[in-house]
Amino acid sequence: MLAARTDLKDLLVELGLTSLATSALGVPAFPLDAIFFDKRSDANWAVPAHQDVIVPIPVGAPADAVRNRRERHGTLYGEPADLVLRELVALRVHFDDACTESGGLAIVDGSHASGRLADAEIRNIPLDAFRPYDCRAGDVLLMKPLVVHRSGRSTSGASRRVLHVLYAPRSHAQLAVP
């Protein structure tokens, strides 16, 4: 059993997720952001096709370091340069089985290699280009934030809980929120 933790970073290290991100990036990594998704029958939504281009940024970051600054839950977010986005990796830890019926993720394989796409380009991607990724409880799915992805509404009534942790190379420590 895991000891009680107040620091998510310590727990991610203890569970081996930071090591996995470091292996994926090929350089030491640190968690930049984490989101817990809890899709269930009373909170069931579809997510249209998109790329993850918004990350937390430090207060006082140079104005030209990010665009479209906004605040979410007391934290400043923005869109960094494409070069920065290309160097990030997200780990999605599944607490429940996730498949098409439970609103699981579908990805356009290799789309991250095209860099940031315009919204119109993403809307023009045919639905059959999206590959569903069926994951079991305990699986960890690694993905690049610039990969085009979507998810549908759950049609099964089953819960789908996922912890999505975004990692950056330590060389991007200026992105870390204090």
How are the strands of the largest sheet arranged? Answer: 1-11-6-9
Q: Number of DSSP helices?
A: 4
Head-to-tail CA distance between termini: 29 Å
The portion of residues assigned to helices is 10-25%
Backbone CA Rg: 16 Å
Shape: globular
Task: Kindly estimate the percentage of residues that lie in beta strands according to DSSP.
Answer: 25-35%
Total number of beta strands? 11
Low-confidence regions: 1-5
- One letter per element, helices H and strands E, the order comes to HHEEEEEHEEHEEEE
Structural class: alpha+beta
Note the main sheet: 4 strands, antiparallel
Mean pLDDT figure: 87
Overview in brief:
By secondary structure, the chain is of the alpha+beta class. The protein has 4 helices and 11 strands. The strands form 3 sheets. A 4-stranded antiparallel β-sheet has the order 1-11-6-9.
Q: Can you characterise this structure?
A:
It is built from 4 helices and 11 strands. It has 178 residues and is an alpha+beta fold. A hairpin with a 2-residue loop joins β4 (66-72) and β5.
Layout of secondary structure:
Blueprint: H1 8-14, H2 17-25, E1 29-39, E2 47-50, E3 55-56, E4 66-72, E5 75-80, H3 82-86, E6 89-94, E7 105-107, H4 119-123, E8 131-132, E9 140-143, E10 149-151, E11 160-169
